[in-house]
Design a protein that fits this description.
Layout (H helix, E strand, L loop, with lengths): L2 H16 L5 E3 L5 H10 L4 E2 L2 H7 L11 H14 L4 E4 L8 H12 L5 E5 L12 H18 L4 E5 L2 H4 L4 H14 L4 E3 L6 H11 L4 E4 L9 H6 L4 E3 L3 H20 L11 H7 L6
Parallel strand pairs: 1-8, 2-3, 3-4, 4-5, 5-6, 6-7, 7-8
Helix pairs in contact: 2-4, 5-6, 8-9
């Protein structure tokens, strides 16, 4: 076994342990620098963000806008920037058919991730969601690929019903998440759910498997303590931190262009702090 294999298996073990009890926050960096800073702050795991990466490349958040190998390279960059477990936002697996998902899951595993998520949506499908049986087969294929690899990364299955505007999203999410759990998903996730009672209902429906909740602008008044009380095991922020950075950049750039003022620079990060953090690494 190579050192790389040992490092990945160690990260996977830590990641799985985090899902066993309590609740942890898994923030989403979008490059090596933000990954290292989040580790510096003491977070226990990280996740990539397809939106954060896409916007940094001047692209929309779309699987069709980002080449599969570009995403693989980005995920590898995040993994190599930190010793923390990393969960890959792997969108729809960059394939519609189950075999294509399985093949691409193997490519993702090879980056060194501790986990990966697969969505049940596609821009090319009417209504935005894969038909239920196909969605389940895609998760089964991802599960089989992981098991065959011998690298037990955490498989998260995402029901995108809230994000695509499905009718009666809670009912559809429950049906899909329960089916995904039965198909072998380790963690369940319905991004876009904001109502605390709906979150509680989802947690109960898939128990004892853990649930991830996305906290973003629509539900940013929820707290870690509140989500813990609802039974949530894992919290991610998606593009949230990237959007905060973009917001500050946009305001400062607009002020500079419109008034010639540099006043917004006063709220910038400390050069000395960042330069010190990113200095030569100790062995």
């Amino acid at each position: 076994m190579t050192d790389t294999n040992e490092q990945q298996l160690s990260a996977i073990k830590k990641f799985r342990t985090l899902h066993e009890s309590g609740c942890f926050v898994m923030p989403n960096p979008w490059d090596a620098g933000t990954s290292r800073y989040l580790q510096h702050l003491g977070f226990e795991a990280l996740a990539t963000t397809s939106a954060g990466f896409a916007f940094s490349r001047g692209l929309p958040d779309s699987a069709s806008a980002i080449e599969r190998y570009d995403m693989i390279g980005h995920i590898r960059e995040i993994v190599q920037a930190t010793s923390l477990p990393v969960n890959a936002d792997f969108q729809n697996g960059f394939a519609d058919d189950p075999q294509g998902v399985a093949d691409n899951v193997n490519l993702c595993i090879a980056t060194g991730v501790a986990g990966l998520s697969i969505e049940d949506s596609s821009e090319t499908v009417a209504g935005g969601l894969y038909e239920s049986s196909l969605a389940v087969d895609r998760i089964k294929a991802a599960r089989a690929a992981i098991d065959a690899s011998g690298v037990p990364v955490v498989l998260t299955a995402r029901a995108e019903v809230y994000l695509v505007g499905a009718a009666d999203p809670l009912s559809v999410a429950l049906d899909r998440l329960v089916a995904f759990a039965d198909a072998g998903a380790d963690c369940l996730y319905a991004p876009g759910v904001t109502d605390p009672e709906q979150i509680r209902t989802i947690v109960k429906a898939v128990a004892p498997k853990p649930v991830n909740v996305l906290v973003s602008r629509p539900n940013n008044l929820l707290s870690v303590a509140r989500l813990t009380d609802l039974g949530v095991r894992r919290i991610s922020v998606g593009s949230g931190l990237a959007m905060v950075a973009w917001g500050s950049f946009i305001r400062a750039a607009q002020t500079l262009k419109e008034s010639g003022s540099f006043e917004d620079f006063a709220g910038g990060a400390s050069y000395a702090e960042l330069n010190g953090l990113f200095g030569p690494r100790t062995p």
